[in-house]
Amino acid sequence: MGIKFDGTKVKDGSRTVANIYRDTLKEGSSSGGKSLGNIYRDQIKLGSSSGGKTLCNVYRGDIREGSSSGGRKLISLKDAAKKIGTSSQGPSTALVWWFFGR
Questions:
Q1: In 5, 25, 54, 99, which residue has its Cα 20 to 30 A from 85's Cα atom?
Q2: Structure pTM?
Q3: Using one digit for the tens of pLDDT, what is the confidence trace for 11-52?
Q4: Within its chain, how far is the Cα of 90 from the centroid?
């Protein structure tokens, strides 16, 4: 079927596989689920801490590798949004794409 992101929930068909709660991507449909990653400023971090490892960042409409705006471009936000079935084009799109769309 494919992943769809509605701004808060990540669904695979009718099943909720993850949700965003307070800028943190959580496993399952509960706000108490395991933290996969989080948004800190325009950076996507591993786990629930702002001090976690930076996986990628959003800079000028692109998702870039690592924490630097000069990092290698991975994909544009527009293309990432298409891949995960959303019209949103912000850091939450990058977060969901990193874990479910790559």
A1: 54
A2: 0.94
A3: 999 999 999 999 999 999 999 999 999 999 999 999 999 999
A4: 9
